[in-house]
Write a structure and sequence with these properties.
The complex is a heterotrimer of chains A (320), B (345) and C (508).
Chain A lengths: L5 H20 L6 H26 L7 H17 L4 H26 L3 H19 L4 E2 L3 H8 L1 E3 L5 E3 H19 L1 H11 L1 H6 L4 H27 L1 E2 L7 H11 L11 H21 L5 H24 L7
Antiparallel strand pairs in A: 1-4, 2-3
Chain B lengths: L9 H30 L6 E4 L2 E4 H24 L7 H18 L3 H26 L3 H21 L11 H8 L1 E2 L2 E2 H19 L2 H10 L1 H6 L4 H27 L11 H11 L11 H20 L6 H17 L1 H11 L5
Antiparallel strand pairs in B: 1-2, 3-4
Helix pairs in contact in B: 1-12, 2-7, 2-8, 2-10, 2-11, 2-12, 3-4, 3-5, 3-10, 4-5, 4-10, 6-10, 8-10, 11-12, 12-13
Chain C lengths: L10 E10 L2 E11 L4 E5 L6 H8 L7 E6 L2 E3 L4 H6 L2 E4 L11 H6 L12 H14 L15 H12 L6 E5 L7 H16 L3 E5 L3 H7 L2 E6 L2 E7 L5 H9 L4 H8 L9 E10 L3 E9 L3 E5 L6 H9 L6 E6 L2 E2 L5 H6 L2 E4 L3 H5 L6 H13 L7 H14 L16 H14 L4 E5 L7 H16 L3 E5 L3 H7 L2 E6 L2 E6 L6 H9 L7
Parallel strand pairs in C: 3-8, 3-9, 6-7, 7-8, 13-18, 13-19, 16-17, 17-18
Antiparallel strand pairs in C: 1-2, 1-4, 4-5, 9-10, 11-12, 11-14, 14-15, 19-20
Helix pairs in contact in C: 8-18, 9-17, 13-14, 13-15
Classes of the chains: A mainly alpha (320), B mainly alpha (345), C alpha/beta (508).
């Protein structure tokens, strides 16, 4: 087997193991119902993480994800109060996401500032903007929200795929096509794998950087839309520290934080692992939610160390 | 003998780069304070209430202490070409240790030491990952950042976790008390600053950290134990965060791992950057980092007194970060210069 | 087409000039490369090889001269333009992306259908075609990084070649290949040559030059010092061209002072070596004596110094200092034990550019003393000032960041740092690399003076005259092996050249 699939294989193995452990511990756990719920409850994290996957594959990082989700939520809620149709406001917010991401990418490349810091400023900016839009929790009352919530596809067993899960799976499919079947996707892997070589091989670094953050912005805005429709409200603190969960999902999905190695589909499983952990802990009932954070941290640690040794074993050049 | 090539006097040498570096952050601080003075005529007034000093200036100093302490540790780590994202988690953990041991009935002085020891252990963990295993700093410290608050919550569970609030004359004295009119935490902050300065500047550790941050390969060949030095930087950062944890926890009389010091790592990094520290590593500016922390706090305070909603705080911070960074980036400066002068590369 | 009747040159570079700030990198260099020939381009580091190649391939712009391709003047302003003209390059470091598949590496930036979509069927076919042109059969879906460096090198060549390729530049393609891999690569080079492609081959392995090349050009210090058919240039002539001109007088002046090993042994290496880096060698350094380390680029000069210093771990043999055998050597331990090392690459390994001259100078001394006992600021300043004066470092003051100094002065700072730690053994790797003539002589004099003061020195250098002028004995390196030592009475240019040339006298 190609060694670069080891992280992905590990991810899927961990996911299956956790699922089976759950099945062994609790009756009714091994069911499409639980699976469908995990998919729906974590769809916005996974959508955001898909965008983050591209950014991380290119060797960057995007910390503005959580704030973007919050900002999109409050904006849609306020636009709803002003009589906008949720689909119209969603379209507007997706455009905003693309532009905001592109701007971040441009600053990163033009000023040669670490992505970490630029997107950190993005995090502040958008969170501040949330509070400027509204300081209260605002409901979204449009009929479309009920319609959205009622959409579902029945799975074998008692499970359903809710609309959020459907949006997530659709955006995953699009992401897989972008990553593996477009020139842009190849360029992202190339820039993350070895920036200088990529430049010599004719990849336009600036265009790729700007596009990859624009794509990241689009996906976090989409995550915000899904979150707003799922919770049918906008709250200015929504999505705080979600960027961490998204990055954790990407890493657990087998993508190397140093860039260039990983697969978008892994992020689905990475997000599902995070979802499974919290579901398991909630099923237990007696365990504190602290265990969610700690077990995520332990898994993250294990994966990062695994990646570290994998990098030296395949002789990849590490880019700091 | 008249020695033409005689080197300039030491005073000149220190002063020249010093003034240049300190100019912008100090100017920023001055502008913010002057604007505040214009908005609120009583801004600079300091009075004595109940045996301690009160006033906006004191308030800025008072509130800036935790961030400044974290930022000082961060400055050391950034000097080694690293970064520590886990400082918020370390604060949560040291706070939880305090609440836990107080419920267990330990002497409060011992508790203080235990809380600091916990933060040192956290710093050692980060140092081990970065210097020992060789994981990138952002990635390595992300692990503790994600799980540290969970560890804090878990520590609170050790005594049932129902009521993490506590009373402690010693710890609250350190945090919110006052001594000879002056808030104790200002004195504590000053003492810690001097202690850190002594460790960094009166031993060779600072020089070694800067050498490793500037060029690890060269430092190694010059005989500096780069791994050990990097490790030390993370331990120092952990300890400083631990002190901030003591102050913040004692301030609220409770351990709240979930929301204590949220985003403090960002403020700390910002303070270092405003103070002129480059994220590319290689230099530690302790004094300027404190100025950076004061600039941030002065901004926050002036937004409060100006009557603007506090929500503007984050946006203004973001704009300040970008502005400072763009100014710091040589690349952007030259290119902007070229664009302004109408030339293209 | 035989080398004797060249006919129309494929590429003709005429009077190429290139000036970098403060350095004349190329001075009126002429180079002609013919179709169907392998042209070896030789020279030590900094001779101007890469600059010349970069100008040919559009990575750098020339300051003067002209380039003719098949007799027509061309203006190559970017690598893309060069490729359009049929000039392809494979750089020394494989410039591909190891984490991506072979197919992706071969087609990145070259394929793409409508809407930027990639047809992997077409891309794989294209990749196969490119590889089959070289007769390479590998699984193109594996990531490049999972293949040997040799295979990666071949993939890089496959990427560089297409039907329009007229000139192929190979920059040190064999640097990390073993004998079999090199033989395979040469087979491919011969095939390409038979197809009429003009090949520029840069290498530092003389055996390979004689094995594969038809003609040779040698650069030194930005000048073309010789060019001609390989069959007419002997090994000794070639080495003499690469390693520099004769300085008979200077040499004899020093020869009179050469010492003959009466000093105490301060360092002995017995069978010290490391697999794939350096074959085991024996070496003794004595107090008051300078040992030269001569050899061509890549012969293992630097590695000897680094192994002795502990910057590279040895996996065989014993290193002993006066105090006894050294275990777990590391730079820090070596410095504490009284050694000092001045690396060849000042920027990457020598200096900490952000820090001041003073801080750089006291670094090793401070590392030796430990972090707790900081050298007081006043002492630091005194030491720095002393060193600045003793080595005549041109700077207004000791607080200037060292990155702002000129090359020669930076080198002096590296030396000053080593000296400030009061070593008894100094290992100097290319102490005069990239510095001007005046500073050059000063540093040689300094080396002699240190020797007289009782230091044991090892001077590794690519400049033969420097080795001859500075050292009492000379150890000679070839192909990562120490092949012998020349005793003090016999240290001359000719003896060193003869030893490097080795077994036969070449073919001329």
């Amino acid at each position: 087997m190609n060694r670069k699939y080891i992280p992905l294989a590990t991810t899927i193995a961990v996911f299956l193991a956790l699922f089976l452990i759950g099945g062994a511990m609790y009756r009714n756990f091994l069911s499409t119902l639980v699976l469908g719920n995990i998919l729906a409850d974590n769809s916005f994290i996974i959508i955001a993480a898909i965008g983050a996957t591209f950014v991380i594959l290119s060797g960057g990082i995007d910390l503005s994800i959580g704030s973007m989700i919050g900002f999109v939520g409050v904006s849609m809620a306020v636009l709803d109060r002003m009589g906008w149709h949720p689909l119209a406001s969603a379209a507007l917010m997706l455009c905003f996401g693309i532009l905001f991401g592109a701007a971040q990418g441009w600053i990163i490349d033009f000023c040669a500032i670490q992505p970490f810091i630029v997107t950190l400023a993005g995090l502040f900016l958008l969170r501040g903007a949330c509070f400027m839009v509204t300081v209260d929790s605002v409901p979204i009352r449009h009929d479309f929200v009920q319609f959205y919530a009622s959409l579902k596809v029945h799975l074998p067993g008692r499970g359903v795929l809710r609309s959020s899960a459907l949006v997530m799976l659709a955006s995953l499919a699009v992401a897989v096509v972008i990553a593996h079947f477009t020139r842009f996707g190849s360029n992202v892997y190339a820039v993350g794998g070895d920036r200088e070589s990529a430049r010599l091989m004719g990849v336009d670094i600036r265009r790729t950087t700007v596009s990859v953050y624009a794509l990241g912005g689009f996906y976090s805005a989409l995550a915000g839309v899904v979150y707003a429709l799922y919770t049918s409200s906008g709250y200015p603190l929504a999505g705080s520290t979600l960027e961490l969960s998204a990055i954790a999902a990407v890493v657990l999905g087998g993508t190397l934080l140093s860039g260039g190695v990983g697969m978008v589909v892994g992020t689905l499983f990475g997000g599902m692992i995070l979802g499974l952990i919290s579901t398991l802990i909630i099923f237990n009932g007696s365990l504190n939610s602290a265990w969610i954070l700690i077990s995520s941290g332990v898994l993250l640690f294990a994966f990062i160390v695994l990646h570290r040794f994998l990098v030296s074993s395949i002789g990849l050049r590490e880019t700091q | 003998m008249t020695d033409v090539a005689r080197l300039p006097r030491r005073r000149d040498r220190v002063a020249r780069p010093g003034t240049h570096r300190a100019l912008w952050p100090l100017l920023a601080l001055a502008v913010i304070l002057i604007v505040d003075g214009m908005i609120s005529p009583n801004f600079f007034a300091i009075r004595i209430v109940e045996g301690r000093l009160f006033g906006n200036l004191i308030d800025i100093l008072y509130r800036a202490v935790p961030t400044a302490l974290v930022a000082l540790g961060m400055a050391v780590v950034i000097g080694s070409k690293g970064v520590d994202l886990s400082v918020g988690s370390i604060i949560a953990i040291s706070g939880a240790v305090i609440a836990w041991r107080i419920h267990a009935g330990d002497p409060h002085f011992v508790i203080l030491l235990l809380a600091l020891a916990a933060s040192v252990v956290c710093g050692m963990w980060n140092g081990l990952l970065v210097a020992g295993i060789g994981i990138q700093p952002i990635v390595a410290t992300l692990i503790l950042m994600v799980s540290g608050r969970g560890v804090g919550m878990l520590i609170n569970l050790l005594y049932g976790g129902t009521d993490p609030s506590f009373e402690s004359a010693l710890l609250q004295g350190l945090s919110t008390g006052h001594l000879w009119l002056i808030p104790t935490r200002l004195i504590l902050g000053a003492v810690l600053f001097v202690a850190l300065w002594l460790v960094i500047r009166r031993t060779a550790l600072g020089l070694f950290i800067e050498a490793v941050g500037g060029n690890a390969a060269a430092a190694n060949l010059a005989g500096v134990n780069a791994r050990l030095v990097t490790f030390a930087a993370y331990v120092i950062c952990g300890l400083m965060a631990g002190w901030a944890g003591v102050i913040l926890t004692a301030d609220t009389h409770t351990s709240d791992p979930v929301s204590v010091a949220l985003y403090i790592e960002l403020d700390a990094i910002l303070a270092v950057v405003i103070g002129g520290g480059s994220l590319a590593g290689g230099r530690i500016y302790l004094g300027m980092t404190v100025i950076g922390a004061l600039v941030i706090q002065a901004l926050t305070t002036s937004i409060l007194i100006s009557g603007l909603p506090p929500e503007y705080n984050l946006i203004i911070k973001a704009v300040v970060v970008l502005f400072v960074l763009v100014l710091q980036s040589d690349n952007a400066r030259t290119r902007i210069g070229q664009i302004v002068s109408g030339g293209r590369r | 087409m035989s080398p004797e009747t060249p006919g129309q040159a494929r590429v003709e570079m005429r009077a190429i000039r290139k000036v970098f700030p403060g350095v004349r990198a190329l001075d009126d260099v002429d180079l002609r490369i013919f179709p169907g020939e392998v042209h070896a381009l030789l020279g030590e580091n900094g001779a101007g090889k890469s600059t010349l190649i970069k100008i040919l391939t559009g990575a750098l712009l020339r300051d003067g001269g002209e380039i003719l391709l098949d007799g027509r003047p061309v203006d190559v302003r970017s690598t893309k333009e060069a490729q359009g003209l049929g000039i392809s390059t494979v750089f020394q470091e494989v410039n591909l992306i190891p984490s991506m598949s072979v197919t992706q590496n071969l087609t990145l930036g070259k394929t793409g259908g409508r809407f930027g979509m990639i047809s992997w069927r077409r891309a794989r076919a294209e990749a196969q075609a490119k590889l089959s042109r070289l007769g390479v059969k590998i699984d193109i879906d594996q990531s490049l990084g999972s293949y040997s460096v040799a295979m990666q090198q071949l993939v890089a060549i496959a990427r560089a070649l297409d039907d329009e390729t007229r000139v192929l530049v190979l920059d040190e393609p064999t640097a990390s290949l073993d004998a079999d891999e090199t033989a395979a690569l040469f087979g491919i080079i011969r095939d390409l040559k038979a197809k009429g492609i003009a090949i520029v081959f840069i290498t530092h392995f003389l055996d390979q030059v004689y094995e594969i090349s038809d003609r040779i050009s040698v650069l030194r210090n930005g000048l073309l010092v010789g060019t001609g058919p390989t069959s007419e240039i002997s090994r000794q002539q070639l080495i003499a061209m690469m390693l520099g001109r004769e300085l008979g007088e200077v040499e004899s002046a020093y020869a009179a002072h050469r010492k003959t090993g009466e000093g105490a042994e301060v360092l002995t290496a017995r069978g010290l070596g490391r697999r794939r880096t350096l074959k085991p060698f024996d070496l003794t350094l004595r107090a008051g004596e300078a040992v030269g380390l001569a050899g061509l680029l890549g012969s293992g000069r630097t590695e000897v110094a680094k192994l002795l210093f502990g910057a590279i771990r040895s996996d065989s043999g014993v290193l002993s200092l006066e105090a006894g055998p050294v275990r777990h050597a590391s730079p820090r331990r070596s410095i504490v034990a009284g050694m000092a090392f001045c690396p060849e690459d000042r920027k990457a390994e020598g200096l900490i550019g952000e820090l001041s001259i003073r801080e750089n100078i006291v670094m090793s001394m401070q590392a030796k003393g430990g972090w707790l006992r900081k050298i007081p600021r006043a002492d630091q300043e005194r030491i720095a000032d002393e060193m600045i004066r003793a080595l005549a470092i041109a700077t207004p003051d000791a607080e200037k960041p060292v990155s702002q100094l000129s090359g020669g002065n930076q080198q002096k700072v590296v030396l000053a740092r080593a000296l400030a730690s009061r070593p008894r053994i100094m290992l100097l790797d290319e102490p005069t690399r990239g510095i001007d003539v005046g500073a050059h002589a000063e540093i040689i004099l300094l080396i002699r003076r240190l020797c007289d003061q009782g230091l044991a020195l090892l001077v590794a250098s690519s400049e033969l005259d420097e080795v001859v002028a500075a050292s009492d004995r000379v150890a000679v390196m070839r192909d990562r092996e120490m092949i012998g030592e020349i005793a003090s009475g016999a240290v001359t240019r000719d003896n060193i050249i003869r030893m490097i040339a080795g077994k036969d006298d070449g073919r001329g």
